[in-house]
Specification:
CATH topology: Rossmann fold
Shape: globular
Number of strands: 12
Distance between the termini: 81 Å
Strand order of the largest sheet: 7-6-8-11-12
Structural class: alpha/beta
Radius of gyration: 22 Å
Largest sheet: 5 strands, parallel
CATH superfamily: SGNH hydrolase
Number of domains: 1
Length: 359
């Protein structure tokens, strides 16, 4: 076969591939249009399960909002912070999932930044307070404990503020596979890497990845299917531990993770505080029962706890705090949460002159 013939056949093949892809793109736009176009900033990590890619630039585009996700050099959706805490500065390390990370709002609208501005206005304790938004989407408390042990404690926080989303954090703690219970011991594991995650790690390196996902409904459909397969794979891995494994008990594992988290913070002379993020209005009734169970546990353990559930449900009668379809908090939701957290920390004396002294 001559070079000219080979080139002609290659060109024909490429043309047919383009035509087929264009046809599929058109069909998806007509029959299964994708409401959300997103370029992820997350990646699999064996030590913490999921982390944000340092220096990544991503976005979420949907009918309800457009949200840019800009990650700093250390993997935070925030401005740059050195690990060493400046003299005269106190720090709050804010951890959580996509609610805390602020999917749906600008970086400066997240409740972490609302809290930071609120503490500055109150001039609490005569110190400058920095609030670092280290939250990562698609994580649970187990991820956040693993992150704190490997990275978060390096920021020398005075307060570790964990946002616990009751709708899925219990399950996330089991499915991530980062910790298991062996008797009364919490055992750290490497996070399982599903084939879906392996595909994601490859596609993240494709030139023009963000541009492609900002335009193509077909690619977003495929991405959604891959994400669903990833969740199913994690569920199968969790179930494979067997009925006799405490790994299958999401409550037992979550309680042990929270106790371990508090102990680690106390060892670092940091306060451990949990903010309970309620399920959006209209969620299944059992989610409110999960909220109550979590609050009872935290109170019994004397872990400072701000339950935003009752106030959110009351305020939601007058104004929308969540996006109707996406369900994440809108700017009003984050403004409300940040103000409530600020008031809670001040009234409980957690940001007083002795906030860093932990007995």
């Amino acid at each position: 076969m001559s070079i000219r013939t080979a080139a002609r056949l290659t060109g024909t093949l490429v043309l047919w591939v383009v035509v087929v892809l264009a046809g599929l793109e058109g069909a998806v736009r007509i029959f299964r249009p994708q409401a959300t176009l997103a370029a992820t900033v997350n990646t699999w990590d064996p030590d913490v399960g999921t982390r944000q890619i340092p220096g990544a630039r991503g976005f979420i585009h949907c009918p309800e909002y457009v949200s840019d996700l800009v990650i700093n050099s250390k993997g935070l959706r925030d401005r740059e912070f050195p690990y060493e805490k400046p003299p005269g500065t106190r720090r709050i390390l804010s951890l959580g999932d996509s609610f805390a990370a602020g999917y749906g709002v600008r970086a400066d609208e997240t409740y972490a930044k609302v809290l930071e501005r609120g503490l500055a206005e109150h001039k609490t304790g005569g110190a400058t307070w920095e609030v670092l938004n280290a939250a990562v989407g698609s994580t649970g408390t187990a991820h956040q404990l693993a992150y704190y042990m490997s990275d978060g404690r390096r920021y020398e926080p005075d307060i570790v503020l964990v946002g616990f989303f009751v709708s899925n954090d219990f399950w996330d703690n089991v499915s991530c596979g980062l910790y298991t219970l062996e008797g009364d011991s919490l055992v750290k594991r490497q996070a399982p890497c599903t084939w879906s995650r392996r595909i994601q790690r490859i596609t993240n390196r494709v030139p023009g990845y963000n541009l492609l996902f900002s335009r193509s409904h077909l690619l977003n459909l495929v991405k959604g299917e891959v994400a669903m397969r990833h969740r199913n794979d994690l569920a199968e891995l969790a179930e494979s531990a067997g009925p006799d494994s405490a790994r299958g008990d999401s409550h037992a594992l979550t309680w042990r993770v929270l106790r371990e988290f508090r102990a680690a913070c106390l060892a670092d002379r940091a306060r451990f505080v949990v903010v309970v993020i309620p399920a959006p209005i209209g969620s299944p009734a059992e989610h409110q029962e999960l909220e109550a169970q979590l609050v009872r546990f935290l109170e019994a353990e004397s872990i400072p706890c701000l339950n935003l559930g009752p106030a959110c449900r009351e305020l939601s009668r007058e104004t929308e705090l969540n996006y109707p379809t996406d369900r994440h908090w809108n700017p009003r939701g984050h403004g409300f949460a940040g103000a409530e957290i600020c008031t809670f920390l001040i009234e409980r004396g957690l940001v007083s002159n002795r906030a860093g002294a932990v007995s």
